[in-house]
Every structure is written in structure tokens, then in C-alpha cells.
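ok so for the tutorial part 2 we go from a plain amino acid sequence to predicted C-alpha cells. step 1 is just haveing the sequence, like this:
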Amino acid sequence: MNRRSKIAMLLVLVWTGAAAAGQTTVQDKVYSQAQARQGLAVYDKECASCHDGGTMGPELWGDAFVKEWKGRSVSALFDRIDQTMPAESPGTLSDQEVLDVIGYVLQQNGFPPGEKAIADVKSLAGVQFVAP
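step 2 — the prediction. this is what the C-alpha cells look like for a chain of 132 residues:
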């Protein structure tokens, strides 16, 4: 392997970060399409008025979102939503509603769906955000 190939391989390992370390990432199909559909319904009812277009809160997809969350655990996103959203009544979403919204957010950021929905909060602790 020549030097250029070694450097390219190293950059891939650094870029994928958690995946290179054998951790689960958002690329590992951690939510289902059905969960994302349920999340859309919750998002439309509870989140869109502030987050669509970044009118009052940041948009939850796109380069800025991925950059903000890259390298962090999806459980940190759960905690943020659970404790601070919706803004007018923080903490009123059920755990399932938060999990479904996370499924929708992952879908909108281009992360692939799998066969199983996110089962519970504990299952998110080891899932890391990486770039799509």
C-alpha cells in the first residue's frame, strides 16, 4: 500500500469516527420507516411551528444540524428534546413521541432506515451521529 492510499484510509477512519471504533452509528439503520412516519405526525403537531425554516428554533436537518451533532450520542438529542421541547411546554412529550421524532429527524437527514424502530431510550446511548 502506497503512502497516498494509507493517508486516504486514515482519513476514512477519522471521518467515520465511531464506526471505525466499532460503535453503532446513525448509519446502522437504527430506526424504521414506520417510526419516521409516526415522528412526522408528532413533528407536525409539536415541532414544525418553530423548527420549519428555523423561524424560532434551528432546523433539525441539513449540514448545520449534522455538524452540530456529529460525534455526539443520539441519547443526547433525546435528552435535549425530552427536557426542553416543545418550548411552550417542555417535558410534555412522551418517551415514545420523542423516539418517533428522532426517527423522523434521522430520516430527514438521510440516514438509512432499518426493520426495527428505536425500542427505548437506553438503546440510544451507544448510537453516535456521523456524517451521512
